[in-house]
Structures are given as structure tokens and as C-alpha cells.
Amino acid sequence: MDKILEGLVSSSYPLPVKRVIVRKVVESAEHWQDEAQCQAMFDLTTRLILEGQDPFQRQVGHQVLEAYARYHRPEFESFFNKTLVLGLLQQGYHSLDRKDVAILDYIHNGLKLIMSCPSVLDLFGLLQVEVLRLVCERPEPPLCARLSDLLSDFVQCIPKGKLSITFCQQLVRTIGHFQCQSTQEKELREYVAQVTKVSNLLQNIWKAEPSTLLPSLQEIFASISSTDASFEPSVALASLVQHIPLQMITVLIKSLTTDPNVKDASMTQAFCRMIDWLSWPLAQHVDTWVIALLKGLAAVQKFTILIDVTLLKIKLVFNRLQFPLVRPGALAVLSHMLLSFQHSPEAFHLIVPHVVNLVHSLRSDGLPSSTAFLVQLTELIHCMMYHYSGFPDLYEPILEAIKDLPKPSEEKIKLILNQSAWTSQSDALASCLSRLSGKSETGKTGLINLGNTCYMNSVIQALFMATDFRRQVLSLNLNGCNSLMKKLQHLFAFLAHTQREAYAPRIFFEASRPPWFTPRSQQDCSEYLRFLLDRLHEEEKILKVQSSHKPSESLGCIETSQEVASKAAVLTETPYTSDGEKTLIEKMFGGKLRTHICCLNCRSTSQKVEAFTDLSLAFCPSSSMDSLSFQDPASSLSIPDGGLLQACPGPSEEPGIYNPAAATFVYDSVMNERMAGHPPDEFCCTENTSVPSESNKIFINKDVPQKPGGEATPSVTDLLNYFLAPEILTGDNQYYCENCASLQNAEKTMQITEEPEYLILTLLRFSYDQKYHVRRKILDNVSLPLVLELPVKRTTSFSSLSESWSIDVDFTDISENLAKKLKPSGTEEACCPILVPYLLSSVVVHSGISSESGHYYSYARNITGTESSYQMCHQSDTLALASSQSHLLARDSPSAVMEQDLENKEMSKEWFLFNDSRVTFTSFQSVQKITSRFPKDTAYVLLYRKQSSTNGLSGNNSTSGLWVNGDPPLQKELMDAITKDNKLYLQEQELNARARALQAASASCSFRPNGFDDNDPPGSCGPTGGGGGGGFNTVSRLVF
């Protein structure tokens, strides 16, 4: 029968005839055949299967062999023995190579035919050894896939025990050698299918024998971490990732990132190759593992690896977005890489040139998923342009391409960036290491206390959080200058973009510290603020004069701070009053206050308008508040002697005395008792208003009853009412009337005629008890309204008035007789009284019980001059006030309901607590309750932001596409400095982490939580909290 079959398959008969004869041969297998006949038939069919010249011969061989093996099983069991199988696997078959896939297919089918025979057990044992040998020979993907099919059907052939671990490791290595040279889709699909079969085999083995999993993963890492230049592991290893249980991520990543035997070069190589795996289609969880490794490396502060890998692979990941199959995973990895790479724009700028083309490609590919993907990509791009907003030339094409796509809110962008930074990664993957010292969860940067410099830190943070002022400072072109404003710009830029938890402002401190401030000694933050603003103002005036005289030169940019201050007196005679000539300080903080004095004898009036940058508000007796009214001087009636005596900082007749009545407490400046006299003239502000002196005294009438303890808490509105209330100049404080040519009783009123963009209010809390000769602090709680309405009486013209620049409304410059300075003004000018709305921006708090020592910290939030929540209309209020001015800022004003609604909205806005190096989230409720919870902690300096329908400083609209994040682009010099420092910081963190890791091996590591006990007030300087003298190494003094 075998001869017939052999002649048939090689004959030239038509194929239908051959099929009929083959059917007869197959049927003959049902009849008895002797052993020799069966052996001959098995030999022939084996030859046809393995060496058949065409598919028909191979098909005939399979059909006949299967029929004879089924009906003559003993004979087939004798034929298909260990000798045959071993010969096939080790020597091949005649001309057929032993690694031909047909060999494995033949053995696979043979095992199926003798599965019920006892001899199959011997074959299983043989195959357990042979498949291991075969895998060690690194078979090609087709052969390895056929082997996987065989082993999946006959798991008994898989090596057992220790050999199973070896087999898995060798199979991993084999996959690492897979390569596909073809670029044709058909061949690529076949290659992917072959690799998938092999990876599925490994998955089954890992499930059956869990002990093989970890050695297999170690082998994977060994392959991808190899630094051998002659070997590049296959991306096919990505097919294994989807089979690794996700619950093992934490353990495996921690093991990899903390293993001291894993060198940085190996880790970098492995990481790069894992990112290459994103190119593997159908592989799941590759992005999950890559992101986990990114976070793990950040947690142990191996920033060098992160930087190198990101810069090397960011473009490859971006390019993967072109392919729909791998797009989701590639976008997840790209997002994490970009959002975490926050110390430098370098990584983002590598892909910026390709963004527009990708956007256009996604718009035109027609896939339903592309639209949703484009929205996600747009959000990522907006986050990066927000963070690195100093490159409008690069971003404008992108903004144009995505202008019709949704833009995330600024709050969402900040949240995404804060959560993604390397320095914000949880150290859960490396619990043995100490806490990271990166930025807090707020995304804000603290300021390191350089030795009792909390007075400066609190002021700087308040100014930085004055959003519009910060943007103006950052937008200045000061390249090449060495001015104080340049140093402030540098400080603001670092506060905005540094990766450090806290920045040390040493250069700015040395440049801005008043000369009479003793280093490492506590000082008055209000005095520092006045000095700083005055220095910035005078410096800009000098530069303007120099630029007008020498337009082609810029010598003023390199003058020292002392040179700038020494020229202040000369330049104060050249006032800049027009909007175009105003300095930045005048534009942002400058207002005008008119002092009006009416002689009660002849009714003649005098007035003077002076500039201010802050108002100093004295505390007032509560019983006098009901009698306060805001009256027009022209309509004032004669007030008899003994009328209201105003205990507020305003112009007076004698140096430093605002009310000549007998006094119990004197508000004064401690500074003059620390120094032999006034500071040098070259450091004094114009008209001596920035430096507190003996003129900074307010006498309070001891006969005026004080506020009962059980009365309602006074508010800032009450203090402002008290400040602006009319005052009768009588007794020793009489006014010299030129018309009467004698001293006369007079009525003095003060009116704000031009409001500032930012209103600075200082609460005068420090007093000198003349009776007991001790300095005391007024610890009264003051209610802080979120919405403050400032009464402003704008006049039609100020051209005829004498104007001068002062730094506050303390008016310590009025140290000579007021009558000598105020001239008759003639007819009263028309005025338009309005209430200008302000929103609370920041609060500087003093913690302590005396002026001898203490601590400053500040609360602040980001608001601009055009908050969308403020939609109040004051037209009706203005009309009402025009006819009746009584009860100014009363709580029952017509806009009280609307104001309450606004306060409810503003209460929910994000507030921050800046306490030197620490920055934490807080709420306005905490600001309101600080004094009630911690009696020694009281509000001292307040910043309010004027609200208007349009921003007063135009030309820097963030919607123009240039100020992507609302802040202006940074100068290249600043950006380079920040990038350099951020890299240095990451290197420092990495070195520290490595040093700690060496110590952590033998001892558990614990760290003190970042913060104080909840029972301590926010102003704590040390164990004694905010109390006087607590937490300072030296006996320090506050200067007020």
C-alpha cells in the first residue's frame, strides 16, 4: 500500500483522481496490516510531511499518518519513540534542518496521536530537556512560536523545578533577541502574532509556577539594562509587561530604584528601552510601568537619570502620538514626562516645533477618538506654556492652531503642575528615606529666614502675591542693570519658578535693608515696606532723568543702591504727576490725600494735596464712632471748643503731636531710641516720610472713654472712618490763620482724592506708656472685611495745588507749623464722592506681646484688579452719597447686601499662609480667627486691591497670547539663571538622597513632620510660640 501511495503522489494524474485514490488508502487503514506494512507507511507519510514538494503531498501525509496511527496505535507507538524524536530535534530529517518549524509541527501532531499511550511519558521527559536546549539556542520567532504552541498544548513538556526558572529566563533572553526586518504590514502582523504566542506561554508558566516570575523579571531588567553596545534587546519584550501583575508595581519599582547594585548607567539604559516599548502595538500597561518608574526615581531623587532619559526620549514619545494603536499610552507618558520636568523648558521646547503639525494631522485623520485626544493634548500644551511663558515667538503658532479648543482654567493648570513635579512625588516607594524638600503642595515657594528677617519675608510675599504688581515687575526690561528693581525682579522670578521649597533672598536683603537696620535683629515690617517702596520709586525717577538727559546711554543701570539713595533729595524737586511720568510704585501704590483746614472764625480755607503709599490707622475710642461723619468742608458748621479730638495720624501744628490734649499713651517709633539721631539724610525719603521719627507720635485724650471689653470688635472700616473723620484744632493745637493773622480754632478734614491700585493699611498697634515708661502692644482684635469701600472725592483739577511725594499718610514730614505750609486755596473745587471697592489681598501678622521681639508671617491670595466675581454697581450709591455724606461706610449702606454676597464668594477663594520657609493652604476663616485663637497674633499691615471693570494697566493682556499664564515672559537672562539653579538643586537633592540611602540600610529612618503642633499658632518662632522673646537667639527689638 505504501508503494501505491508513493507512486500516486508523484504521478501526473489529475488532482481529483489522486484524491479518490488517497481516500481508498485512508480507508485501508481500517483493515489489519502487519507491522512491516505499518512501519513502511509511517516512514512514507513522515517523509511526505517533512519533505513534501507541494501542499498536496504534505496534506496526504498528514491524512494517512493520522489514519494509520489511530487504527494501528501499538505500531505507531513503536515508531514514534524517543530515538525518532531525539533525532529529529538534534539532527533534523535528511535535508531538513533541525530548527525547521516543520520538525516541531510533526512532533506536535505525533504527541497528539499517542497521547493515550504509556510511552508518551518518556517523550515528555525527553522534551523537557530538549525544549530547554532549544530555547538556549535563541530560536527565531516562527520556531519559538511553534514551540509555544506545542508547550501550551502539552504543558507536561515544560521543564519542572529549578529547570522551569532557567527555562523562563532563557525564554526571556530569546524574546530579547527577536527582530523583524520586514516593513510590510503582513509580515509585521505575523511577527506580532508570533511574539504574542511566546509571551502568552510565559504568562501561563508564571501563573502555574509563581516562583518563576521574579527571576523572569530580573532577566528582563538584565536584558534592557545591558550597556553592551553590540546588543540591542528587542522591543518585543514589551509584550511581557501586560502579563506582570499590577499589584507588583510598588514592590518591583522600589526594589529597582533602591538597589545599590544597579548602576545609574544601567538604570538609564533600562529606562530608555522601557520607553521604546511604547512602540509595541497591543501591549497593555507599558505606560503604567513607565510612569511608575518615573515616579519611583523621583521619589528617591535620582534626578540625573530622569533628566537624561527625558531629554533623550521625549521626541520619540511625542512621535508615537502619530499612531492610533499606541497613542493613549504615549500621551500618558508624554504628559508625565513634560509636567514633571519643571526645572527647565528644554524638554518641552524639543517638541514645540512639531506640535502644530500634529494638531493638523489629528484634525484631518477623521478618527472619532482623535477629537477627544486633541483636547487632552491641548490641555497638556496649555499647562506647559503656562509654566514657561517667556517664549511668545515659539508659542504663537501653537496658540493659533489650538485657539478653538477648550483651555483649562488657571486653577486647574496650577493643580496639575503642583501634583506632577518631581519634588512633589510621594516617597511611599522609598519609605526609608527622609521627606523630600521640594515645593509644598501649594506650589508656592517660601523664603528662608536669614536671621530675624521674617519682617522682610512677610512683606516680600505680600508684594509677590499682589498679582498685578508682580506682573509689572516681571515685565520690566532691566537687562544689564544692577538696580534694586532688578534684584526684586530676580527674586520674584525665582519665587515663581524655582523648584526649591524655600529660596534664600540674601542678595536682595543686603540691597534693600535700610542702613540703620542692625543685621540679624528684628525690625518693623511696615518701616521696611515704606523704605523699600521709596527706594524703588526714587531709583526709577533717577533712571528717568538720566534717560531723558542721556538717551543713548544707560549708565544709571549700574549705579549702586547708595548712589541712588544719595540723589533722592535732588530729584524730589521734579515731581512726576502725569500717568506717563509716574513711576511703577506711584502707579500701583500711589494715591493722593487732600488736607482741608477751615478757620472757624473767618471761614477761610486752606488745603494741600500730598501723595501717599500707605495709610496708618490709629485705634479709636469706640464711644466716639457713632459721632463720626464725613462732611464736606464747605458745608461744615461751627463746632464749639471741646468738640471731637481725632487721635489719628494726620497733619498737626507741632512736630509729631496730632492732638495736644493730655495723653496717657504715645504711639511712637522705637527706632529713635536705638539711634543717636535721625538716619543719614541721603537715606531719608522725600520730605522725611519713610523713616519714623519723633514726629510719629499720636496723643490720645485720656478723658475719652475707652472701648468696653464686651463691645463689638472694631473693623478696619471703623478705623478708616476714624482716620477720615473731621478734627477740631483747638487749644495748643490751634491753627494759624493768615487771614486773621492769629491762632484760631479750626476744623481739619482729610479726603482721599485719588485712590491707589493697591491700598496699604498699617494698624498702629505699638504704644509707649508715658506713665510707666514701657512699650506696649495693642492686642485688640480687628475685623478684616474682605470687601472694603474707600471713599474718594475726585476733584476736577489739581493743577493749582502744591503736590509732593510722600511714602505714607503718617505725615511725619509735617514737622513744622501746619499753617506755614497750607495756603489759602480760594474757591472750593467741585467734587464727586464715590465709594471705590477694594478686595483684601494679603495680611501681614505680627506675633508677640511687645515691641521687643516677635515674629511676622503673612496670609495672601492671588487676585487682580478685574476679578470676575466683582460685579457690584455703585452708581445708585454715589447718587445717594452726593446728597448725604453722613455715616460713611456704615454697615447698613445700600450695597451691604451685594457686598455680603461678594464676601461669600471671596471667602471660598484660595488663601496661603507664608511663614518664612513654610507655605501652606489656609482659609479666610483662619485669617479672621487668628487673634481670637492666638491673642498675641494680630493683623498689622493689610493690602487691598482696587476692583474695576477694566485693568488700570493696559497693554499686557494675557489673552494676547504673549502672557500665557497671566505673568509676562521672563527675560532670557532670568530664565537661564532659574534653569541653572533648578538643575543645581536637583543635583543637591540627588546627592543627599544617596548619602541617606547609605545610612538607611542599617537603621530605620524617621523624620520630624514638617510643621508645628496644631496647638501652636502659625506665627510660632520656636517652643514658646509667638510670644515676646520666644524663638530668638539674641535679644531683638522691633522698630515701629
Protein traits:
1040 residues; alpha+beta; five-stranded antiparallel β-sheet; disordered C terminus; cysteine-type deubiquitinase activity; Usp38-like_N; Papain-like_cys_pep_sf; Peptidase_C19; Ubiquitin specific peptidase 38
Question: Can I get a quick summary?
Answer:
44% of the residues lie in helices and 12% in strands. With 1040 residues, it is an alpha+beta fold.
The structure class reads: alpha+beta
Oligomer kind: single chain
The percent range for strand residues is 5-15%
Helix content percent band: 40-55%
Which radius of gyration do the C-alpha atoms yield? 42 Å
Per DSSP, the total helix count is 37
Distance between the termini: 120 Å
- Apparent shape: elongated
- Contiguous low-pLDDT stretches (5 residues minimum) are 426-437, 551-556, 558-576, 623-710, 797-830, 868-895, 951-964, 1004-1017, 1019-1040
Mean pLDDT: 75
Main beta-sheet strand count, sense and barrel state: 8 strands, mixed
Q: How many strand elements? A: 21
Region (Disordered): 1009-1028
GO cellular component, one term: cytosol
GO biological process, one term: protein deubiquitination
Organism: Pipistrellus kuhlii (Kuhl's pipistrelle)
